[in-house]
Specification:
Layout (H helix, E strand, L loop, with lengths): L18 E4 L2 E4 L7 H17 L2 E8 L2 H4 L5 H4 L15 H8 L32 H15 L2 E8 L5 H5 L11 H15 L1 E6 L3 E6 L6 H14 L1 H5 L5 H6 L6 E5 L2
Antiparallel strand pairs: 1-2, 2-4, 3-4, 5-6, 6-7
Helix pairs in contact: 1-5
């Protein structure tokens, strides 16, 4: 099957499984049976972007038993925010993450934030990029598709980080309604760490990382960014911020949830 509903959507020469459009996102009807198709879609995005500046970026859409039990699909049966692509550029990343820094999640003080405290420490330094972020994303996405049940999604964007803003995604709604800020942070991580969105769930995101921090010091500042971005993801881990940071050194796969 090829996508054939508008000039933008007919550029793909990929042999895609059966699927349909859910607003601005195309999704396969069934989980991917050929995991290598994810890598093919990444390659096609690169070709399309080279020709026209934008393409269809692939995301893996995980099976969500919360909706399957009720016969629902969150792509259709849950509301969305207004698209906010035009608002991304105006977002101050450091100011936004500092505003999201919550010093009150720890029991009995700020011990879980050690070595930091009530104040956000600022942004982590950029890592040296040694591999192509999209190639890394294609490999990681194909591995995930081989291990689990994921539908294939395609979204017309200039860069993967823009997907939440383009869709009006509501996965982070328990923490913030600023979907443009979510995409702005993802853009910043794309630029600094080669972080590329590969999994889009109802209230979760997963990123492939081409340039992870290579030492504990840099990972520690990045860990603070992760905590601001998704307190829920951090609070679900044992230990304090320093221990969380240890797991980010050389780590090429990040996962965030807001459930």
């Amino acid at each position: 099957m090829t996508i054939a509903t508008s000039p933008l959507r007919t550029r793909s020469g990929l042999d895609l499984p059966a699927g349909r459009w859910h607003g601005p996102l195309w999704a396969s009807d069934e989980p991917l049976s050929e995991p290598g198709r994810y890598r093919d879609c990444v390659a096609e995005f690169g070709r399309s972007r080279a020709l026209s500046g934008h393409g269809l970026w692939p995301v893996l859409i995980p099976h969500d038993p919360r909706f399957a039990a009720a016969g629902e699909d969150w792509l259709d049966d849950r509301s969305r925010l207004a698209p906010a692509l035009a608002e991304i550029e105006a977002v101050d990343i450091a100011e936004t993450l500092a505003r999201w820094w919550d010093p009150f999640c720890c029991t009995g003080g700020v011990g879980c934030l050690r070595p930091y405290g009530a104040n956000f420490p600022g942004l982590a330094r950029k890592s040296v990029l040694r591999v192509d972020p999209h190639a890394e994303a294609g490999n990681t996405g194909s591995i995930l598709a081989r291990r689990g049940a994921y539908r294939l999604g395609l979204v017309p964007v200039d860069r993967p980080a823009d997907i939440p803003a383009v869709l009006g995604w509501t996965g982070m709604i328990k923490s913030t309604e600023q979907v443009a800020a979510i995409s702005a942070v993802l853009r910043s991580w794309e630029d600094r760490f080669g972080a590329t969105l590969i999994v889009l769930g109802f209230d979760e995101l997963e990123l492939s990382i081409a340039a992870p921090p290579r030492n504990q010091g840099r990972a520690l500042v990045l860990a603070a960014e992760h905590r601001s971005f998704s307190v829920r993801s951090f609070s679900g881990q044992p230990g304090n911020l320093r221990e969380y940071a240890g797991g980010l050194v050389h780590r090429r796969h990040w996962r965030f949830s807001w459930d």
